[in-house]
Amino acid sequence: MPDTELAARIKAALGAVEIPGGGALAGYGGLSDIIVTSHAVAFAISVAPGMEAAFGPAREAAQKAAEAVAEGRKVMVSLTSDRAPATGQAAATGRPGPPAKQPVPGVRHIIAVGSGKGGVGKSTVAANLALALLAEGLKVGLLDADLYGPSVPRLLGLEGKPAVREDGIFSPHEAHGLKAMSIGAMLEPGQAVVWRGPMATSALRQLLRETDWGGLDVLVVDLPPGTGDIHISLFQQNEVSGAVIVSTPQELALIDARKAIDMIRRMGVPLLGLVENMSHFIAPDTGKRYDIFGTGGAQRAAADLGIPFLGEIPLVMSIRERSDAGTPVMVAEPDGAEARAFRAIVEKLLADLPALKHQDDR
Ligand SMILES: Nc1ncnc2c1ncn2[C@@H]1O[C@H](COP(=O)(O)OP(=O)(O)OP(=O)(O)O)[C@@H](O)[C@H]1O
After folding, report:
1. 3-state secondary structure of 270
2. In which element (H, E) is residue 218 found?
3. Angle between the 3-13 and 52-69 helix axes, to the nearest 10 degrees?
4. How many CB atoms lie within 10 A of CB 94?
5. Of the ranges 95-99, 244-248, 353-357, which one carries the lowest mean pLDDT score?
6. Whole-model pTM over 0.90
7. What is the complex's ipTM, to 2 decimals?
């Protein structure tokens, strides 16, 4: 059935969902467009501040009504208000504050990997760092939250969509020893642009919290480039142990990286450090190093910003070729120089965050 037809059927089903104050959800002005992909259905209900709890039952009823006609697709209904509800101390003082941070079930630590701009190799670094953590004997997952360019399926060679259990919980893909989920599995090519704001954050929440991670020591989250709704939602709603920023040596990328770093700082998430990717070129025939972009830019920037410099990854054809073939260099050439560079970064991370290794800290 064409997507628009299914969207119309879902809207019709929402005609039976009552909203507070009377009337049906289908005719409510705060109901967003209904997005239908081959695997998922998503829509948002936006309510006045303070009305979130009152709309809770309507949201649940909407979820059930949509599921009944969604032909097996995962249904994501988000409830949003213009202002975050007041909680904790903020509530006591009458001031609005962000919702409390929550641990993710089945996950001890989250490490977010971000970048100022796209195309700097953030996903490549995230996947190889996840594999280097795995090589340290940790149980590791990789969540691709890069809505605008999900690349984890290509990097890890994932095929098809993740299985959904009867209770609606995702069973993640398993690849190279990692548990992996990608927001890409929920999207049609070219559809990312419509998944803005509440819909994107709702997708992230469900991927995080409605996946059977099965007891991970660390979940590496590949963020979209820059700063946006996904970042705010991840950092505000979840306990994140730290963030790694990936940058290329070019100054422009570093300026963008500074913005991302400032934002992470403001959100109170520990900055684990900066990784310089594509830092220099190694000639495949002679093994000679060429500093094509100049040297030390990221290292100086890290020092200026007062965050650790975690290390540099060379620009090498094999990293690209291995990634495109679905077998990251950490798996394909575990003893090579590039894999050693990723392992060295992970050693620094573990030294700075020893709790990652200690299983009994929660
Ligand atoms: N060190 C490297 N050497 C060679 N090629 C690399 C290296 N790092 C990444 N690449 C290649 O650069 C391209 C972009 O990498 P990747 O998708 O990881 O970047 P990204 O920052 O996550 O991009 P986006 O923001 O679009 O998701 C890919 O083709 C990847 O294989």
Report:
1. coil
2. strand 216-222
3. 130
4. 7
5. 95-99
6. no
7. 0.96
| Residue in the block written with tokens 């990608």 | 182
Sign of the four-CA dihedral 272, 278, 280, 284: positive
Å from CA of 338 to ligand 1 middle: 14
Task: Give all domains of the chain, ordered by start, each with its CATH number.
Answer: 3-92 (3.30.300), 107-356 (3.40.50.300)
Backbone angles phi, psi at 329, to 5 degrees: -60, -30
Burial class (CB in 10 A: 0-12, 13-18, 19+), 167: exposed
Q: For residue 118, how far is its CA from the centre of ligand 1 (angstroms)?
A: 9
Q: 166 CA to middle of ligand 1, Å? A: 36
Q: How far apart are CA 89 and CA 138, in angstroms?
A: 36
The CA-CA-CA angle for residues 166, 172, 174, to 5°, reads 135
Please list, in sequence order, all residues whose beta carbon lies within 8 angstroms of the beta carbon of residue 268, skipping any fewer than 6 positions away: 235
Is the C-beta atom of 323 inside 6 A of ligand 1? Answer: yes
Ligand 1 centroid to Cα of residue 120, in Å, is 6
3-class secondary-structure state, position 102: strand
Three-state SS for 205? helix
Burial 248-279 (b: 16+ CB within 10 A, else e): bbbeebbebbbebbebbeebebebbbbbbbbb
Tokens of 222: 């590949």
In this structure, which amino acid lies at residue 290? Y
Question: What tens digit of pLDDT does each residue of 261-320 get?
Answer: 999 998 899 999 999 998 878 776 777 777 766 677 778 888 888 899 999 998 888 888
Nearest CA to ligand 1 atom 6: 320
Q: Is the CB of 124 under 6 A from ligand 1?
A: yes
**Tokens for 194?**
């419509």
Of 320, 324, 327, which is best to mutate to test ligand 1, by the most ligand atoms within 8 angstroms of its C-beta? Answer: 320
